[in-house]
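Workshop exercise sheet. Pairs work together: one partner reads the sequence aloud, the other fills in the structure field after running the prediction. Swap roles for the next sheet.
Pair: D.N. / O.F.
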Amino acid sequence: MEDYTNFNQNEEEAELSFSDKIAGIFTEPTSTFEQIAKFPPKGIDWFLPFFILLLLVIGSQWLIMSNPIIKSDAIRQQRAAQEEYLQKEVESGNLSQAQADERMEMIDRQMEQMSGNIGMIIQSISIFVMGFIIFFVVVLVYYLIVKFALKGEGTYSSALVANGLVSFIGMIQVIVTTILSLSFDRLMRDTSVASLMNIEKTELAGFLLSKVDPFSIWSYVILGIGLAKMFKSEDVKKYIIVILSVWVGWSIIVYILSKFVPFMQNF
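Structure field:
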């Protein structure tokens, strides 16, 4: 009887396989992260999911931009945004109309060059480089909040694992977004109600509806669970609320800044 009990205890403490971790993120995230937290964080648990996510994002961009209707519309939108920005610079006296026209011609040439295969390759490399930079910075922000504001017991690597494994939900979102973009013949950056209804996110109604995104909400809820368990906390709800609040708070800041800095609309 004693040997049987010890066998069960050892079995329960066995580390999850990578495939079990993937399945657990979707089926039993709380117990999955709880089990992962019993062992030292592994680099493969955050690097591989995020690496695959970036590959999917790049593949999605190539596939979507192979649609001539979407490509033409994307270029038109980018050009319109640049024209609007330059016109505001003219009206404020920072540029003359001649200077604005000259810059617009240069932008047109750059956009034409970037619309080809070379431009797509450069964009793909940028996605990888900037993707990892943004990932590390975002994880650092979450780590500092969890470590010092929520008094969690964990390391930066623990936060990397929690954020990295959530990438599997992001993968599904990228696939769904790609299918929707090709189905509707228009570029969709997410799965929010605003994107589905084709409402501009620069307006208040569009901004609010852009937060009604099932995949984004799902991701942040799972991230809250992951951070709670990786940082040895039983108060999962508090972590979820804090993570969702950070997401909404940052979105509000970006929305306000986008009124003055147009490129912030892409964040």
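Discussion prompt: DSSP finds 13 helices and no strands in the chain. What would you look at next?
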